[in-house]
Write a structure and sequence with these properties.
alpha/beta, Glucose Oxidase, domain 1, Immunoglobulin-like, seven-stranded parallel sheet, five-stranded mixed sheet, 25 strands, 18% helix, binds 2-acetamido-2-deoxy-beta-D-glucopyranose, protease, Subtilisin-like_FN3, serine-type endopeptidase activity, serine protease, signal
Length: 563
């Protein structure tokens, strides 16, 4: 369960006395490699689970505690230990359950920013440097800024130092989707995490005056409320989800129906609204709007709350807000590639948040959304892998996660995009253009003097990355190599198979490889050429490289951009 692994979280702080961060007596002692400190005024707030916490200058308060009304740091830190997708109790509602199946990894908290003030770059860099000195194994960074060339991006440079110190780094892809080129934190050494949905919905049913019933979502599920009054229809973009409900309530509304546009598409959110609310998808929104138009002033509706339901389909899908590629500066590596659950994530929240009238005050959880919430799930998974495979490098862990990710949804279909309500597959992301850095710029990123003429350079597509993205002139043939390292069993034979991108021939040699020992390396070559049918310039064609030993199955996505 990840014991002995230290996960560092740089965020807005933590709520230390929350049940999620208490040691119930089952935690192993803190690893002897830990060199950090506990900077709460009350030192006993640290324990074998929360082994350290420190705040950096620029934070409004010197204490590493999270703000009371904005629990971003508390929320993401708890997720890092709950990768098993548990459903803790929320507001004491039926249909939820608490499962104490936390990882046994240790948490080190670095308070360096708050959600309202993400650009405290100096503090964030100082926090990452402190985490490196303290001996963390994994850094979970649910923060970002608009992409910059790497030599101008202090955060990317700091994370490269972390990678050199053998620390696994995962970072949020950003929440600026569905627009192209919105991906953040896209350096090749980082696992860049997008956000997907899951199959759980906290349902709110809207019954229209004409008898039609439609489904939406709401995290607030009151059992009794005022039945008469005005229901207000804010558009999705008209403020922060919960704030909209506060405003509607203050204005005398009794209920609220949040209407998606085609941009939000199929994503609905189960926020802790302060009055009866249903957040409905675009199809449903159009139905409701039609009803309103047709019935004008005589329109009526009620909202009924049906608690948690599982089995939503399609699932998972990509949340509309998840930032999209290509990354403008990463030189041809596709980012983000794999989303992780980041929509309607229920996790720990500061104890005395005013919105929560809770009985069990030590068990306060709240829903939140974002690639921020997806990122610590991957930190937890990296902790599991690191604990089992102590000598795996950070690149090996990243490769293991990427090459074993499922490309299909729960029904075996390609994963769909919530934007525009599932008309697109989620994986048609094009390549970033390469940028040429001079010696000064490369030296800045590397943190040491580098002379490109001496160390040489390779094309981005020749980087031994777990995914393959190339550009192809259809009149030519292109070959790329990959070196495979056996982390499976000794004496394993893998058959290699390619699902060719449409219109492209891919020849792999050899067509099967035999490993006789663990850690052994084998090279393969992939040769790409056009099948001769017309291919449009700029087209992006997807395929798969698959290796199957009968015991282990691994997969590298292939993307070909036509020149
Ligand atoms: C310090 O924290 C511990 C654990 O939460 C608590 O039991 C104790 O009362 C606190 N001490 C003070 C002086 O607040
Ligand atoms: C939109 O919500 C309705 C429930 O009202 C559901 O039946 C439908 O499948 C949803 N559409 C999409 C594209 O998810
Ligand atoms: C219900 O609405 C009435 C009239 O608007 C108001 O006086 C009353 O306080 C409300 N009750 C609740 C429980 O909100
Ligand atoms: C409402 O009016 C629209 C045209 O504005 C029509 O297409 C639709 O069928 C009507 N819906 C209902 C429920 O009557
Ligand atoms: C939700 O509950 C209401 C009221 O009990 C009921 O009318 C409705 O059919 C339920 N909807 C679903 C989808 O279960
Ligand atoms: C690299 O480019 C930067 C920005 O254009 C420039 O200031 C610097 O002098 C260049 N360095 C070398 C070694 O060419
Ligand atoms: C790929 O491997 C082949 C065969 O070992 C070699 O000839 C070729 O130079 C390699 N290509 C690159 C780009 O390293
Ligand atoms: C990792 O450690 C295992 C067990 O100690 C060993 O068998 C294996 O060869 C090592 N792998 C690498 C890549 O060093
Ligand atoms: C595989 O390719 C790498 C990089 O080109 C090379 O250094 C290595 O010697 C090759 N290994 C084998 C077994 O051919």
């Amino acid at each position: 369960m990840g014991s002995g692994v230290i996960i560092g979280v740089v965020d807005s702080g933590i709520t230390p006395n929350h049940a999620s961060f208490m040691d119930d007596g089952t935690m192993p002692p803190k690893p002897p490699t830990w060199k950090g400190s506990c900077r709460f005024r009350n030192k006993t707030l640290c324990n074998n689970k929360l082994i350290g916490a420190i705040a950096f200058r620029g934070s409004r308060r010197p204490s590493p505690k999270d703000a009371k009304n904005d629990g971003h740091g508390t929320h993401v830190a708890s997720i890092a230990l709950e990768v098993l997708l548990i459903t803790p109790m929320f507001l004491g509602l039926p249909g939820h359950r608490i499962e104490h199946s936390h990882l046994k990894a240790h948490l080190a908290i670095y308070k360096a920013c708050s959600t309202s003030d993400l650009r405290v770059m100096r503090d964030i860099v100082a926090a990452i440097e402190e985490a490196i000195k303290n001996g963390v194994d994994i850094l979970s960074l649910s923060l970002g800024q608009q992409s910059l060339p790497f030599y101008d991006d202090d955060m990317m440079i700091a994370t490269l130092s972390a990678i050199r110190a053998k620390i696994f780094v995962c970072m949020a892809a950003g929440n600026s989707g569905p627009y192209r080129k919105s991906v953040e934190n896209g350096a090749p050494w980082i696992l860049t995490v997008g956000a997907s949905t899951h199959d759980r919905r906290v349902s709110a049913t809207v019954k229209l005056g004409n008898g039609v019933e439609v489904e939406g979502e709401s995290g607030y599920q009151p059992s009794t409320f005022n039945a008469t009054g005005n229901i207000i229809f804010p558009g999705f973009g008209e403020g922060k989800y919960r704030d909209m409900s506060v405003n509607v309530k203050a204005a005398g509304g009794v209920g609220m129906i949040v209407l998606d546009t085609s941009r939000e598409g199929a994503t609905t959110l189960s926020y802790d609204y302060v009055l009866p609310t249903a957040h409905v998808n675009y199809t449903t929104a159009r139905k409701i709007v039609n009803y309103l138009r047709n019935t004008s002033s005589a329109a009526t509706a009620t909202i009924a709350f049906n608690g948690t339901k599982f089995g939503a389909r399609p699932s998972p899908t990509v949340g509309f807000f998840s930032s999209r590629g290509p990354h403008p500066y990463n030189g041809g590596i596709i980012k983000p590639r794999y989303p992780w659950t980041g929509v309607n994530i229920l996790s720990a929240w500061p104890l005395d948040s005013d919105q929560i009238r809770m009985v069990l005050r030590a068990h306060i959880f709240n829903f939140d959304d974002g690639t921020s919430m997806a990122t610590p799930h991957l930190a937890g998974i990296a902790a599991l892998l690191k604990n089992i495979h102590k000598n795996w490098s950070t690149a090996t862990i990243k490769s293991a996660i990427m090459t074993t990710a499922n490309r299909f949804d729960l029904d075996g279909n390609p994963i769909l995009d919530d934007y525009k309500e599932h008309i697109n597959h989620a994986n048609a992301i094009d390549m970033g253009s390469g940028t040429r850095y001079n010696d000064t710029q490369v030296s800045t990123v590397a943190g040491s003097l580098v002379q490109c003429s001496i160390v040489g350079s390779i094309a981005p597509e020749d980087l031994n990355y777990p995914s393959i993205s190339i550009s192809l002139d259809p009149s030519k043939t292109k070959s790329i190599n990959r070196t495979l390292t056996n982390v499976g069993d000794a004496n394993e034979v893998y058959n290699i198979d390619v699902e060719e991108p449409k219109g492209i021939t891919v020849v792999v040699s050899p067509s099967s490889i035999q490993f006789s020992q663990i850690g052994e390396e084998k090279n393969i070559t992939l040769e790409f050429s056009s099948k001769g049918m017309p291919l449009n310039q700029g087209n992006i064609l997807d395929g798969q490289l698959q290796l199957d030993s009968g015991k282990h199955f691994i997969r590298s996505p292939i993307s070909v951009t036509i020149l």
